[in-house]
Amino acid sequence: MVIKKLMLKNYRNYDDLDISFSDRLNIIIGDNAQGKTNILEAIYVLAVTKSYLGVNDKNLIKIGYKFSLIKAVIDKEDSLKNLEIVINDNGKKIKINNKEIKKLSDYVSNFRVILFSPDNIRMIKEGPGIRRRFLNVELSQLSNRYVKLVNDFNSLLKQRNEFIRVMNLSSNNDISYLDVIDSKFVQLAVDIYGYRKKFIDQVNEEIGNIYEKIAGFSDLVIKYHSNIDYDDDKKVMISNLYDKLKKSFDKDKNYGMTFTGPHRDDFYFYLGGKNISLYGSQGQLRMAILALKLAEIGIFTKYSGDKPILLLDDIFSELDVTKKNRLIDYIFNDVQTIITTTDINLIDTKLVENANVFVISGGKVISQVDNN
Ligand SMILES: Nc1ncnc2c1ncn2[C@@H]1O[C@H](COP(=O)(O)OP(=O)(O)OP(=O)(O)O)[C@@H](O)[C@H]1O
Ligand SMILES: [Mg+2]
Q: What is the pLDDT, as a whole number, of residue 327?
């Protein structure tokens, strides 16, 4: 899959942008605050329908304007598609080939991107919510069914919590309704766990090798923590989880919330046997996230038979020369890639000579060199 063209109107610091990308490597150069990240963010929004920066949709609209428009032409399985998102005060509208898509869950796996942002370091440093969100976003891009599962699970969880809160207040001990919720709850929970576990297992098949290629040191692994216990037999998993739910019922009731289930999952990065959130250097954290994102290329391709688009924001800062060169060797492959940098000298001339290069200033492309 490649993005051929991107058009922005009133997006962040852009009035009008119309940019055509190379199918291979694209480099966006510009000083700070000129709009490099905004281009990658817009492509991400078009894929995932929201920003990765945890901002409100309305922050994406250029200040002083009423709406924002992101349009793209993508080439997927040898046919061109027009994608479009309009954001205004009333929400957002999404269209594929001019036809409105009402259900976001039908849309998200349509156009797949993998984005590395310096902001991703938060994924290691902060609490588990950001890591679960990462799993949910990536798996939503891979599977419509996963989106539906998570939506169904979240509404069931809400119902369960409301029910046990009412039970607590009213001393209602009729648990037959709770049993109905719980039997559905454990099925959805185990299905979500299954998707996540498979994804993390697949990441672990690749991430150590990739980290070694960049950092010269292997042994990076991700450890998935869940209060669902793995068993080869799904029925056993479901029944074990059901028992756990029942066991924690008194605690759940006292607190008015559910302590068991995939909404409490987490994962950690371990390097050389140590949790890098506690021991990792800044560079190691960056490389670990980069290795994760690069490992995802193979997984995305396996799921859909089509390569995702790789968006790499400011990857070269904070890496020493050796690591930078190793990374360059690694990303010079056949996946469409868009990278941003403030300094073209940070990028090997071999790469620049094979890339389309865009110079951005004040929300405009001020020069462009096509080498593809
Ligand atoms: N909604 C908005 N309306 C207008 N301008 C905005 C909006 N949101 C962000 N900006 C502007 O966009 C610019 C930042 O763009 P961006 O983050 O893409 O910069 P960058 O080129 O990636 O910079 P850096 O090298 O520092 O990462 C800033 O000038 C900021 O004020
Ligand atoms: Mg930036």
A: 84
State the chain's maximal CA–CA distance in angstroms: 73
Residue 54's pLDDT is 85
126 vs 256: CA distance, rounded Å: 25
Which residues of the chain form CATH 1.20.1050.90? 122-305
Task: Give the closest residue to 246 by CA, choosing from 175, 306, 296, 317.
Answer: 175
By C-alpha distance, which of 307, 328, 304 is closest to 316? Answer: 328
* Local structure of 293: helix, strand or coil: helix
Residue-level pLDDT at 193: 98
DSSP label at residue 126: S
User: Which of 11, 17, 29, 37 has most ligand 1 atoms within 8 Å of CB, for mutation?
Assistant: 37
Give the closest residue to 192 by CA, choosing from 114, 132, 269.
132
Record the pTM.
Answer: 0.95
Distance CA 87, CA 10 (A): 10
- Residues written for the chain: 372
Task: Give residue 332's pLDDT.
Answer: 64
Segments of the chain scoring below 50 in pLDDT: none
> 196 near 135, Cβ under 8 Å?
yes
For domain 122-305, give the CATH number: 1.20.1050.90
Tokens of 81: 């598609």
Nearest CA to ligand 1 atom 2: 12
Amino acid identity of 332? F
Pairing between strand 91-96 and 99-100? Answer: antiparallel
Q: Measure 251 CA to ligand 1 centroid, in angstroms.
A: 47
Q: Where in the chain is the domain with CATH 3.40.50.300?
A: 1-112+306-372
Q: What is the pLDDT of residue 33?
A: 98
Pick the CATH number of 1-112+306-372 from 3.30.420.40, 3.40.50.1000, 3.30.470.10, 3.40.50.300: 3.40.50.300
Is any ligand 1 atom within 6 A of the Cβ of residue 12? yes
**The pLDDT of residue 320:** 86
